[in-house]
Amino acid sequence: MRDKPFKDASDELAWHFEQRVQQHIREGMSEADAQAAARRHMGNLTAITEETAESDVFIWFETFKREILLALRMLRRAPTVAAVAILSLGLGIGANTVVFTLMKQVVLDYLPVPEPERLVILHNQDPEYGHEWSNGMHSSFSYPMYRDLNAATPRIFDGILAFRAVDVSLSGRESAENITGGMVSGNFFQVLRVAPWRGRLLTAADDQAPGANPVAVLGYGLWKRSFGGDPGIVGQTVVVNQHPFVVVGIAPPQFYGIDVSRRADLFVPMSMKADVVPDTRPLSDRMDHWASLIGRLKPGVSQQQASAALTVLYPPFLNQDAAVLKLSPNGRHEYLRKRVDLTEGGQGYSGLRDSLSNPLKILMAMVGIVLLITIVNVANLLIARGVARQREMAIRLSVGAGKAALMRQLLIESLMLASLGGCLGIAIAYSGTPALLHALSFDLSSASISARPDWHVMLVAAAVTFAAGLIFGLLPAWQSARTDVGAALKTEGSFGHTGGVGWLRRALVVGQVALSLVLLTSAILFTRSLQNLENINAGFNTTNLLKFKVSGLQAGYSQARIKSFGEELRQKLAALPGVEMAGIATVPLLQDTDEGGEVTVEGSSGLKEGRRSYEGNSVSPDFFSSMQIPLIAGRQFTPSDSANVHIVNETFAKRFLPGKNPIGMHFGFGDGDNVKLDQTIIGVVADSQHSTIRSHKIPFVYSPYLAEPHLSSLYFYVRLRSNEPNAASAIRALIHQMDAGLPVNDMDLMTELINESLFVERSLGYLSIGFALLATLLAVVGLYGVMSYSVTSRYRELGIRMAVGATPERVLAMVLRESAYLGMGGALCGIPIVLATAGSIRAALYGVQPNNPVIWCSAVALLIAIALLAGFIPAWNAARIDPHSALRAE
Amino acid sequence: MARLLSKPLQGSLNLLILKTLSRGPLHGYAITNYIQMVSDDVLQVEEGSLYPALHRMEQEGWISAEWALSDNNRRVRYYKLTPKGKRQLAVEEDGWKQITAAVSKVLKFA
Questions:
Q1: Who has greater pLDDT, A137 or A242?
Q2: Which partner for A874 in A294, A366, A788, A820 could form a disulfide, CB atoms 3.0-4.6 Å apart?
Q3: pLDDT of A845-890, one tens digit each?
Q4: Residues with Cβ < 8 Å from A364, sequence gap 6 or more?
């Protein structure tokens, strides 16, 4: 194919040539002589044409196109190499893109607000007394404390906002739905500097007298989803938890609140707390900790300055707390030493970030290693091809092609491979991420996270692709530029010199094996850790246990009605044919939820601060029998128990009442000298896991739920007779028959819940196995390539050995030994990397040590076995060399 | 008579082409012929220098080129001076005069 500038120049010169011929003829020459003379005069027409065409600035583009076409032709000539390279690169880049897509949103992204770097999160230090309405964020403040801090810091902060996510039911135009709402301080949107999409956002005036401003701002997503994006909704009324709220505006599209893992769809002022979460403590309770605080630093104020200023401002407010608490002088002294810690808040809060950032970083490292192995593998393939093309290169060099031109050609070929692999990778990521998340049963619907890579991620993927192409392209290009023209042309190809290229390829394979060892070891570790977690004894029988949640309060039930309904349902459940019995708890099990505080037990005053904490749950009669938690001493609850009788767990008894009979002993809630020891222990049960499957043993207090003054949702635990597939629908039908308007949520088997709670560990386990397999496979391909090349190039030598008496077995052993050495060398190089990285994955493991020598030794043994396997076919071929033909093949 | 190749006159090739084209549009062959004729066969522009130079000058915007059809229907490329080229011609002429003056002085006194 001739490109345009070339054809133009060629036409132009042809015309010139003809003119000259015509002139010679006019001067009296014969046609043949005229042509010869013109040719003599003008010299090499093609060279002139080329030079002329290249004078065009645009020539570079045509050259580029020509070289790409040439590169494509070269790739077509070796389709297997190209396919292996593109496929493995695609997988490597795809895996990196998938993980980076999640990593970016979960770990790296900032809140979509102006100047997020000026936001700081306020953390409350221990000791914490009173009631903690845990948000999973471990840094809650009371509302009065929030007002105090915000009012006292106008010189440090543009404002401090308070936020609290709550589940609410929203009755809009059609049907009711459960959504995540945000209770926010009046200045929430001003502090974040978010502008309204429609109408107005909340202001400080909306957050004044409790209950006075029933106004709400809708999230953009909810507005589109449930209200069809109708701007007329502004000014109308929606019903939140049975209470009417007037919609005053719509938040902008990207805004999700301050927690990317839990998108808030509705924002109401905190002053409306009593309507949104009825029957909780009043807004003015200084001992009710429930709000998360984020401040926006004033321009020019550093985090350190703000922190120092808060240290001075905080004690007087703590003093007010202390007055409410009636602390002992000692306790008061310690309490007043508490400080407010500041951490960067530009990324907002994220439960997901806390739980996923470490696993994601581990995954990122793993896919990084996979990509590195892929690159090494492709470099190895290309070097092998470079060797095969040595004669071609030598010929091109000897007819005058520049070394630079040859290297450029080879680089273009590798960049071609890289971009094809990159396209495949991005395609895999684009269609694969949602599928992967689905396969891992990861639900993003409540989070503001997209499974699709955005253009930032695409850009990074493209840059990685380009870098990869450069890396694996430069090695072979450098190799072939060193081609010794004479030597390459003299040797007849089949006995190419192995020296120069051989060591490089071996080094690359050793590197591949070393990296595979790292992945293999982590795969074994994560699998072992997952097994450990799956075999944890929860302390109760998890099979055939069905759980669900009934939210009586949201349906407008009174406290008395919640209890009578709970008992009635419990008895009716027990009467169902497939059900043995049912129990009720007020704090769900294994759902990352806990309630608790401090206790003072009679005769145990010597215990240090912080050793008196407990967790608690209020449960129904029959709860322990339903869960099959063994009762060790005393009795279970009965419906007539009063609020001050409790059942404790073994850890409680051992820690606070060692060597004593706990039954009948007294204790009090709270800490300090004034605590009344008016609570009585009536029973002791065995320890069981409560907030998570992997939690440590902690003193536990169970209380009778029927005596509890503030109930909202009840969690039912139903012991089924056997695996009853119809139990769920029978139970739903029963509840529907009792009250059709009562929402029933989260119905699931306990085993499913445990499975879900091990999501992160399972993902790490499965993905690490997948990556380790991929890495090992690539290492096998690399080893195989090097070994078979080694055998081919030593064809004559091996033939001579056999001719002088080496048995096939010895040749086989010789080749296998070489392969095993490569594997061993790689493994030896890998062990220091394994040990160096051990620390960074320790936190993600359960019940297994990352530097466990048994584990990495088995990984090493596995790799050596794999190396032997990879070397077997080349070794077999070597052992079957016929000495006669090997010697003749000169 | 000895042939002076255009090589020593590389710097002046642009000047010669621009000056030639200031008389009107010409194709490449006519340019060589013209220069050769006017210089009494002393200056013979080689094709290997002429065409790359023409294309470079076209990229500089000093001359423009267009294809026309010859009497026997062949594609012929004509070059024409642009206004920018006219300014460039003046610059090159000045430069040339300075250089020849300088060279003459050296010849006189050396």
A1: A242
A2: A788
A3: 888 888 788 888 888 998 899 889 988 888 988 888 887 777 775 4
A4: A96, A99, A100, A103
> Count of domains in chain B?
1
CA distance A345 to chain B (A): 56
**Chain A contacts of B76, Cβ < 8 Å?**
15
CATH no. for residue B74?
A: 1.10.10.10
Q: Are A688 and A647 in contact (CB under 8 A)?
A: no
A13 vs B75: CB contact, 8 Å cut-off?
no
Which member of A16, A55, A57 has the closest CB to residue B47?
A16
Identity of the residue numbered A710 = H
Q: Is A746 on the interface with B (CB under 8 A)?
A: no
Q: What are the tens digits of pLDDT across the range A660-683?
A: 899 999 998 877 667 788 999 999
> What are the boundaries of each domain within chain A?
4-56, 60-109+375-491, 117-346, 494-537+760-890, 553-742
**Residue A56 and residue B28: Cβ atoms within 8 Å?**
no
Q: Taking phi first (over 0 means left), then psi (-120 to 50 degrees means alpha), and beta for anything else, what does residue A778 get?
A: alpha
Note whether B29 contacts A: Cβ–Cβ < 8 A: yes
- Whether this model's pTM surpasses 0.80: no
Q: How far apart are CA B62 and CA B85, in angstroms?
A: 4
Name the pLDDT band for A608 (thresholds 50, 70, 90).
Answer: low
Q: Domain limits at B90? A: 4-109
Interface test with A, best of B33, B44, B55 (most A CBs within 10 A): B55
Q: Count of CB atoms within 10 A of residue A261's CB?
A: 21
Give A364 or A446, the one with higher predicted confidence: A364
For residues A535-563, average pLDDT: 86
- Inter-chain touch A11–B52, beta carbons under 8 Å: no
> Which residues does residue A162 pair with via DSSP β-bridges, in sequence order?
A293
